[in-house]
Design brief:
It contains 5 helices and 7 strands, in the order H-H-E-H-E-E-E-H-E-H-E-E. By secondary structure, the protein is of the alpha/beta class. Its main location: cytoplasm.
């Protein structure tokens, strides 16, 4: 893959401006209790390493949110499976077009139940144990970030993805899972390098099964 900066996906001007405004508001108007004033801010729910939680950086979450908005289209539905950072960014109002799609977050961590009907309790060990209201092939884009780098975990999450998705899949996981991801979901590795708020010891990548600028090389 090329190292040229010209091929690296970047945030839209609208999203950059909205993020900058959010940062400015955060600096000038902190919550008196010292907690995040925006319930949809990445980090409003603290990472819990016991559940293998590692939140994306704001920039990565925003770029992935832009991607799913673009691919879902007007009135589209997005499922964020074990990827609350992207769900939060979709709801934060900083991504252009995010108000024109609907999104849900499938999570094991019940702290996210504060998001009401958008929260769907999810245990990857029971990949098809979903509420009866969650219909098969009912989401235009499914973005998933399996909590563990193992074939067993990815295989089970892949069952959930295939149940939910109308076709478009965006998978975020370790580079070492490339072969398994391709076999299970027919995805290709992107040139885009996602980043987290904390550095991970394993190389982390995105994989997709549709044409996208994230594939640029």
């Amino acid at each position: 893959m090329s190292d040229s900066d010209d091929d690296v996906p970047t945030l839209s001007a609208h999203t950059l401006a909205a993020l900058q405004e959010f940062y400015n508001e955060t600096r000038t108007g902190p919550d008196p209790d010292g907690t995040a004033s925006d319930p949809f801010a990445v980090g409003a729910v603290e990472e819990d390493w016991r559940m293998s939680q590692f939140w994306y950086s704001d920039e990565t979450a925003a770029l992935l949110a832009e991607e799913v908005v673009r691919e879902a289209g007007e009135g589209g539905r997005v499922a964020c499976v074990c990827a609350p950072s992207v769900y939060q960014k979709l709801k934060q109002g900083v991504v252009d077009g995010s108000d024109r799609v609907s999104a849900v977050v499938l999570e094991y961590d019940r702290r996210f139940s504060t998001y009401g009907d958008d929260f769907i309790y999810y245990d990857y060990n029971e990949p098809l144990s979903l509420p009866c209201g969650v219909a098969p092939q009912s989401f235009d884009v499914v973005l998933a970030d399996p909590p563990y780098l193992s074939e067993e975990c990815l295989s089970k999450v892949a069952q959930t993805i295939q149940y939910l998705s109308k076709g478009k899949v965006l998978l975020c996981t370790g580079a070492i899972m490339e072969g398994v991801a391709k076999e299970l979901l027919g995805v290709k590795m992107c040139s885009f390098l996602p980043k987290h708020n904390r550095n991970l010891s394993n190389e982390f990548r995105c994989f997709i099964n549709y044409p996208s600028r994230l594939l640029s090389s």
